[in-house]
Amino acid sequence: MATTHHAPNIYSSLSLASLIIFPHSLYSSSLFFCPNSLGFQMFLILSSSSQQQLLHCFFTAVFFFFFFFFFVIVLDIQSCRCLPSSITVGDDDFYPGGSFYTNPMDLGVLFSVGSCMDVYCPPRKRSRITAPYIFREDKLEVDNRPSIDVLPDECLFEILRRLPGGQERSASARVSKRWLMLLSSIRRTEICPLDKELTAPVSDDVEMISAEDRELGSDGYLTRCLEGKKATDISLAAIAVGTSSRGGLGKLSIRESSSSHGVTNLGLSKIAHGCPSLRVLSLWNVSAVGDEGLLEIAQGCHMLEKLDLCQCPSISDKGLIAIAENCPNLTALTVESCAKIGNESLQAIGRLCPKLQSISIKDCPLVGDQGVAGLLSSSTSILSKVKLQSLNITDFSLAVIGHYGKAITSLILGGLQNVSEKGFWVMGNAKGLQALMSLTITSCRGITDVSLEAMGKGCPNLKQMCLRKCCFVSDNGLIAFAKAAGSLESLQLEECNRVTQLGVIGSLSNCGSKLKSLSLVKCMGIKDIVVGAPMLSPCHSLRSLSIRNCPGFGSTSMAMVGKLCPQLHHVDLSGLDGITDAGLLPLLESCEAGLAKVNLSGCSNLTDEVVLAMARLHGETLELLNLDGCRKITDASLVAIADNCLLLNDLDLSKCAITDSGIAALSCGQKLNLQILSVSGCSKVSNKSMPSLCKLGKTLLGLNLQHCNKISSSSVELLMESLWRCDILF
């Protein structure tokens, strides 16, 4: 029998001693001392000798505990100092010298601290341990913080990852930054599935991010955008926790993060842990994020489809290679102004990302021919959109594009100073760009008349062509290209200063039957002179004509172009202060289909005669009319508009010579349905126009009254009360 009583005595004494020595769990201690508890009942059924033995073990344990406690503190009393609210141990900051109490006699108070006191221990993984007591020279104060704060991060991590649902995790993240950072470090795979809620559809869980920062993308992905001071690691941690209960984050954009307090690799690691469903990531001007952060994204977000890196100087080939190795679903990659990204990472992308469809590389000095060849020469390449700007590539890269770019439908080339005429000529004659539909070339000296014609012949399905700042393209090359590109629908020329009106007229006459849009912007080579041109066939397919800020384009040129475009719907002649009524009237009279949108802003020499003819000939189709800066337009034009333009919904009369009478005449239009009206800078419009504007306000959604000096603020306030649906600028 002695043997049967011996084991319970040992177990009971050990249990009781452990509760006394380690009473952090008050709940367990109360269960033992409660009269109805199992521990207390076990004590009562023991014999008196067993009870004495148990009490002996108890007091022995207590004695050894306090002896050990006092011994440790005395040994380390000289290496500690008074702390305000916490004791730091391990390899963190340690405070040498000094005692907890200046009076050695007060050391006896340490015996009353009990087992809640934290003691010195060797360095461990977590170096900071919070003590629940505050030491002073004359007294000992108890810190009333919850006892859970004394737990190290490992223990708290284990507790938080067992929270049953997203609502509980979101609520817990609001407790403190420590809890937030711990919660955001928990991967989705580390959450213990204690509840079916993790696998059931989530409905109305509380989210960490305010409604103003929340946006649901057009494709259904949950989207977050952090910019400026809002872009911090704490914000990313909150996003990681808050979005996890709503199906996960789909798109994340970080812009202009502060270098001192902005987003770092730690913030991206929180996203990687909490948002495995991330599909789109944009990092713009984020200097503190390097390869470590991108590596975390690569390891945690295997569903990533689009990556945009702009002005990220700390990211190199290493980070991008990690993306290539871990994100096989990548379909779009944009790299701009990243000085450490070069050929090696692009070759890895081309080799390991078979679904890549769009690539954009700009201003990366380490990217050369090898990187471009690695992207395009893969047998599984399905690249359809390629954009290469300001790179150190040569004719070799363009030859590779021309040979291997069989799937390319959109190609943008800009600032390629090392590419010659030969490169563009080879690209066109390689016959590999059969699917190319859109081509934009900017500031490339290799584009000449010869290479442009080769491009027209080598791209039979080309529909859109844009040439910007191509200073070696002349009339002959433009006409030859128009003849060769039989599928061309849109032609845009910007700052091509060798092109004259002969090139424009020749292109219109030789472009075939598919050209729908022609745009000329800042082409200084066009001079308004009479030239002997043969009889040219009109371009019946052209629907949109835009000639903007070409100072040499005057009435003579306008009259010649107008006769070749009988089916125009949209006309934009903004900034052509050289044209007059005599130049524009032939175009208005030759348009058979009826004009719908006309922009004449900055045409300061036009008069009411043009508006009267337009209202008479195209009043039934006109929807938009911009007369901004036409200072010779008067009230007579408004009378004609009110009587004839029934479909007009957008009218801009800024800085015109109209008066209150013109506004009154406009408001008398019985079937006029204006939605947007601007009279900004009309100095002759005064408060007398308020009743007319109020009458027009039945249909108005936008009204611009800025810089109308004769209109008072009080009148505008009354108008705002009346036109509560209309946005009024004053």
Describe this structure in words.
This protein is an alpha/beta fold. Helix content is 36%, strand content 14%. It contains 25 helices and 25 strands. The strands form three sheets. It has a 21-stranded mixed β-sheet, covered by helices on one side. Strands 1-2 form a two-stranded antiparallel sheet. The protein has a two-stranded antiparallel ribbon with strand order 3-4. Helix 14 (395-404) links the parallel strand 12 (385-389) and strand 13. It is flat and about 125 Å long. Mean pLDDT is 79; it is low at 1-34, 74-140 and 195-218.
Question: What are the main properties of this structure?
Answer:
730 residues; alpha/beta; disordered N terminus
Largest sheet: 21 strands, mixed
Q: How much helicity do the residues have?
A: 25-40%
Structural class label: alpha/beta
- Residue share in β-strands: 5-15%
* Rounded average pLDDT: 79
| Envelope shape | flat
- How many β-strand stretches? 25
Rg over CA atoms, rounded to whole Å, is 39 Å
How far the N terminus sits from the C terminus, by CA atoms, comes to: 102 Å
Low-confidence stretches: 1-34, 74-140, 195-218
Helical run tally:
25
